[in-house]
Design brief:
The structure is a homodimer. The first copy, chain A, is an alpha+beta fold. Chain A is built from 20 helices and 33 strands.
Chain lengths: ~775, ~775
Amino acid sequence: MIRYDLGMNEEKNFIVTEDQFDQDHLGKCEAIMVLGNGYMGIRSATEESYTNEKRDTFVAGIFNRFDENEVTELANIADVIQMTIVIDGEVLDLSHGDVSDYKRQLNLRTGELTRSFTWRSPKGDLLSFVFRRFISMDELHTIGQQINITAHNRSMNIKIISGINGQVNNSGVQHFSEGDKRLYEKKFLQLVQTTTQSKIDVVVNTAHHFKCQEEKQIASLIQMDRRKIYYEYDFELKENEMITLEKISNIYTSRDKAYECVSLKELKTISYEHIKAASEEGYPELFEKSKRVWENEIWANQDIQIESDKDYDQLAMRFAIYHLYVMTPMHDNRMNIAAKGLSGEGYKGHTFWDTEIFILPFWSYTNPKVARSLLEYRYLSLEGAHKKAKENGYEGAMFPWESAWLEDGEVTPVWGAADIITGKPTKIWSGFIEQHVTSDIAFAAWQYYKITHDEEFMENYGYEIFMDTAIFWTSRLEWNENKNIYEINDVVGPDEYKEHVNNNAFTNYMAHWTIKNAITYYKTIKETRTEVYTKLSQKLDLDKAYHKWITVLDQIYLPQANEELIIPQNDTYLDLKCIDLTKYKNQEHVGSMFKEYNLEQVNEIQVSKQADTMILLYLLEDLFSHEVKIANWNYYEPKTLHDSSLSLSTHCVLANDLGQYELAYDLFGKASEIDLGPNMKTSDHGIHAASIGGLWQCVVNGFGGVRMLGGILRIEPHLPATWKSLRFTITWQGDILDITVLPSKLKVNKKTKKNQVVEFMHKGEIYSCEEEIILTLNDM
Amino acid sequence: MIRYDLGMNEEKNFIVTEDQFDQDHLGKCEAIMVLGNGYMGIRSATEESYTNEKRDTFVAGIFNRFDENEVTELANIADVIQMTIVIDGEVLDLSHGDVSDYKRQLNLRTGELTRSFTWRSPKGDLLSFVFRRFISMDELHTIGQQINITAHNRSMNIKIISGINGQVNNSGVQHFSEGDKRLYEKKFLQLVQTTTQSKIDVVVNTAHHFKCQEEKQIASLIQMDRRKIYYEYDFELKENEMITLEKISNIYTSRDKAYECVSLKELKTISYEHIKAASEEGYPELFEKSKRVWENEIWANQDIQIESDKDYDQLAMRFAIYHLYVMTPMHDNRMNIAAKGLSGEGYKGHTFWDTEIFILPFWSYTNPKVARSLLEYRYLSLEGAHKKAKENGYEGAMFPWESAWLEDGEVTPVWGAADIITGKPTKIWSGFIEQHVTSDIAFAAWQYYKITHDEEFMENYGYEIFMDTAIFWTSRLEWNENKNIYEINDVVGPDEYKEHVNNNAFTNYMAHWTIKNAITYYKTIKETRTEVYTKLSQKLDLDKAYHKWITVLDQIYLPQANEELIIPQNDTYLDLKCIDLTKYKNQEHVGSMFKEYNLEQVNEIQVSKQADTMILLYLLEDLFSHEVKIANWNYYEPKTLHDSSLSLSTHCVLANDLGQYELAYDLFGKASEIDLGPNMKTSDHGIHAASIGGLWQCVVNGFGGVRMLGGILRIEPHLPATWKSLRFTITWQGDILDITVLPSKLKVNKKTKKNQVVEFMHKGEIYSCEEEIILTLNDM
């Protein structure tokens, strides 16, 4: 059972609690309580082992391809967390004996995971355990663990088996060759592993340190096994005695920017020196440093405060911010955010449009440096995008649907789940024909630029992305001789239940938008940024491209609203048969429709996996009238199963825009429950990164009403009925704005003086904020 | 807890029983209850999963090398045994709820594993389960499972998740690329996997079939995951209703001799057709066929009957015979017996001298065809032996210490367990310098030949093995200028606690013996087998080799007994320091000395891992006087820790020879407990194949007193005091002899008429047996 109401005083609504051990749903807490710092993430599997646990340790960017039949994936690194604890011959295992006072808590404010309980073993030994764990936000490589064991009812023999275990793997796939194992100074364990194909060296070190109330004899025996090095400790714990074990570990890799040029031997030495120093410092000190970063650098700047009767909303928001910081490789622009962050093997650590459309707004509005780093990743992966375009017979940059290491290009797997009709695996077409991601990246670059005014980004990366993606789209267009229009046929739009469709509205509009903006930026750089123009001209033959753009632009087919104001999602959608979807709309687990239909059959029904036309109405909102939005909402939402976690937040923001406030709040609630909610199976393969980014959008772009419209900041908040106040911070073109929303009041505080004023729009009027503006909200 | 006293009537002393589920020691029953047919072996992991279980499915000869840092090993094939059973939402797991009437039994007579119990789930559902399982002895590819579930106290919802799981691996190492997954005819599941380096295709098929007391709605949903295809079944089980699930599976590989030349597509079709037919036949029929082979072809010919107060001895003997049949790839002369049979990952499925010295006697004396196939394996692997010789700067055939696929040559890993002093892994020298295996193979060929008179074997394989191995030994000898002798320096003898020793007595004597016999056989073939002589001369330049042999033979240094009649195990052993070994002699687990010493230190102490000089006194027994044997026994046995499972049986046979009857019986008891005994940890990595072969030797060569001495059959039995009779069957030069030993009587029955008489020696006299000879034993 997950509870949310814990935490007192300054920690109120910062604590996620599991108050009963649930062996049947280990994945839930492993994922939603994942620890990390963007460099690495470790699923919060318990120290002791259970069937069906999933132990994953990921370092961002450590990709490997097992063989030609599989795609590259984030490799599961040797585990340091697991420990076997044996009391008088009985293995600590909470499915045996009696457990009381059980509590596992993730402290979002400090990044520490604690677990405490009292256990009566089947033989009758009574002990208390307190486990603590963190991954340092202060220092990329450090992992800390601390275990307190107290014997209650008698003296007992305790055996602890703990070390480094490289036998872990990705659902049966081993990505590492075994390297050296070594014990140094009878204390420091080191294990080296090297990815089999990408040849990345990983060095894992660990050190144990016991703290006892009085001098104690602790027998220790070093053991090595295949891909494993560990200690067996053995000691007597007296009645009422407590012992503390600290285990400090680190991970270093040859992919780390700082160590790219050092030899493996040096990397071993560096990491060994580090573990010596870190273990010397000890858990409390190391944790304190990490906690200070969480407190002073993250929460002090990023916290969103929601005053409400329902504490859960506040917690859900902080849960989102916590995870956004844990999942994002802020330290390295060669890496991006995985669809499951660093919290699970789902989607293999790949990056999707999820980053640009669902997560980047958070970073652009709150920590633009990170947003820029994530966009730079796309720029650095242009090589792979060119490769993909060429392979598909196109020009320019065709970004991969799924992206991993920079040069990899397209890494989407080709085969998926069982087709219940044919008995074969279903072919995954996204990697071939789900092409809108290329516009999504351009859109995100534009959004970042408009929010930040980061000209330097545009000059170095942004303009080129626009030119290159527009070149792709121009080459992608198909001339329809009969209709005298350019079409984009045989694609998958955001709605992946419709494959091989023609003229998906979202895809066409976004392609058009990309080319249109490329034209604008072409003019801009030609006129005002000659150096950039010259550089890009040499690379891309800009003038020729430009002439194509202006030729094709107005002939690109943009599906228009029909008489009922419905924009057809694609050429055929509106003619497909309608069936009663009630059963699937009320489903307990997503994807239930596939128990009865295969994808080919679903393709023939008016049913959508997720927001498709809706997301068009959100991203390019100023192109469509309120009436069109309403009509399309009413048409498409009932046909949308929200089988993708990307769907709810878009609908929430739109519902708010359309004045459906209760529905908006309801959708926010549902979105916030995707990971944090009571369904214990949703997060097994990892948290839903896009949904978590979407949660922030629900609150800031939805209830907070913040939007960037054609370069202008708009703030039109509307609090849910149960909320008393909402306070959040955004950055706008270099200035920090503190925004407070009360049911009938909007307060904008300009905290910094980068610009003399910040202008924003509210209800059609422009306000210039020098220090503070307070507006009355009338529409309550 | 393992019990041994079960089985009534014809099954008396054929049943191994576990009468209490023991989650902490799963490895024990997984290994000692392993099922197999020589083609494949599957550890008897339970259907439901537990932490620390080890699921292994091995097919003999399916070797793969993960990468350059590792050696080739028997690859763990996709699992079909595991099933998840969920009752009203609760996963069947015997560590929860209440278990009663638990019984797991391996029936050695029929090869069937059964497990039955009643389970009260934590929620209070009361059910009975009966699981049955076998691997067909009648047909190489077939695996059968049957599960009966009965609901007792109310109606319940049952969910069964079952299929084929290729996520299993070898302690974290995945040896297979993922191939096709497919469901045929909404019933037959198929998964293809291909070893990554050796490129062997494996096709696994499975089919489920429910049998109900009355018509029943069973919902089924096909699922695919990475390397996995499975069904989810869902149904209601009424109060007092029983349902039966049959799961029939098969495994086919491209290494199968019968399918070497077919395409993967054909292999898929062949295996699919097979599974259709087999699942049509159903469990009872398929099992009946397999059982008939066990009964009529194995036990009817092979059973050893021991009448004794201690039933355990009888069971232990049958346990040994069962395992010898399960572990031996009788179907294919390109394969040999692994040190752990097909029952675990220990020693990576490699073949050692264990086969020739400890297991082959069983086959040579009871089923010579199989013995010949195993010796042909060595002949077929001469290429690897030549390669190894060349790599080491020698000539002829230097057999690998560890052997896998024919051409692999040496496959011994280079690094082993932790060195507690240096903190590094210990280097394993066996693959480099444990060289006696080459003589052991020649010795076994000689023994087989003398027991069977299989001239055809000698002409095609045997003579060549002798010539080739003698050539190796001649090139291996080192001339000692000072002493005017040939030495063999820097070796490891059978005692692996002494590395880099000079003139290990066993090694030198056996090398000398090999060359001496090669000289004899050279003369034989030159004089009487001209064709063979010509063929081998062309291959090996025999005349030149012969001249070397006769030159070196008498100059090979053979360590002689000293004044105390002790034969020095090697040049330095007798000068090493002696320490008090009591602690280690009384150890609970083998290898305890390494908690205090590293191998380098152990090297400097008069302590032996296992029989070394003793095995010399056993194999070349007619070279040494009774007094020398006694003296050496008294000297070496107290220094021998029996840390190798190969040690006890040799000591048992010798003790019997030396008239130490009580000790012999005691050692037999210890040897029989290596796997079957109460120590629950010994068999985790698999059963001890050599020890199991040794058990047969204890009884037939030891208590039964059967020996082949220079080509002559000797029978000098001596029953342990507790035994009332011993009856066993051997083949001698084509005839079957039924031998019955009573405390004061020996009865030899010649059951067949291949030869008119069979001669045997008893107490120095030769008897000619035409039909039956009864002798009185006087020395009781």
